[in-house]
Amino acid sequence: MDIIIEGIKQAFILLFTLDPEVIGITWLSLKVSGIATLISLLIGVSVGTIIALTQFPGRRIVISLINTGMGLPPVVVGLFVTIFLWRNGPLGFLEILYTPTAIIIAQAVIATPIVMGISLAAIQNLPANLRLQILALGATRLQMVWILIKEARLPLLAAIMAGFGGVISEVGASIMVGGNIKGYTRVLTTATVMETSKGNFDIAMALGIILLLLAFFINAILTQIQQRERPR
Predict the structure, then answer these.
(1) Burial class (CB in 10 A: 0-12, 13-18, 19+), 153
(2) Contact criterion met (CB below 8 Å) for 114 and 161
(3) pLDDT digits (tens, 9 = 90+) for 159-194
(4) Which domains does the chain have, with CATH numbers?
(5) Dihedral sign from CA coordinates of 184, 188, 189, 195
(6) Is-above-0.70 flag for pTM?
(7) 86 in helix, strand or coil?
(8) Quick one: 77 exposed, middle or buried, by C-beta within 10 A (0-12, 13-18, 19+)?
(9) What are the residue ranges of helices labelled H in the chain?
């Protein structure tokens, strides 16, 4: 119990004194996870919508693969991204391993199936004849897709929260592809693991609390938007 109390106290000290290292780590965590979530949103919503509105052979297998991807272990993602970005790997020429860009790629791979699966389910859950009614009113297919996305905006906001929550809290992939380099690729999760391994439980607890506060702040904003848009 003393460790928890000391951790809370240390967290507020680090925040209110604007400790440069902690602020840098927190900003990097927000930046890489935010960009990764945005990438997953663009890919996930687009592909999920296409699959939801299209019939093709093997569709159920594709959906099963997407649903399986929603539970991808971050360490497995980190392993494959590391292999691809390794100097002898297919993308080694990019020389981005152990950089924030590598972390963004790994986190985007983790978040995309989550956003895609929820988006697919959200579009599928709309009334089956809605798209026909929209087209009958003279809308183009592109306009029809946009209207369907707007109709499914509440679960799509949930998809964004789920994707962001999945990447801001992951540690395995970030360590593997980022290397936990001080001042460059160290994020809140990897810093927490490092401080725990060093026995600095108060600092680790403080970093964990800051991570929780950051996740709560972002999700609170998205929740306000979601609930404001809720049908009356």
Answers:
(1) middle
(2) no
(3) 999 999 999 989 989 999 999 998 899 999 999 899
(4) 2-228 (1.10.3720.10)
(5) positive
(6) yes
(7) coil
(8) buried
(9) 2-16, 20-53, 59-69, 74-85, 100-124, 130-136, 141-151, 153-168, 172-178, 188-197, 201-228
Give the Cβ contact number of residue 138 at 10 Å. 7
C-alpha closest to that of 161 among 221, 74, 75, 104: 221
Q: Residue 101's pLDDT is what? A: 95
**Could you identify the residue written with the tokens 């859950």?**
125
Give dist(CA 201, CA 4) in Å, integer.
9
% residues pLDDT > 70 (the chain): 97
3-state SS of 164-185? HHHHHCCCHHHHHHHCCCCCCC
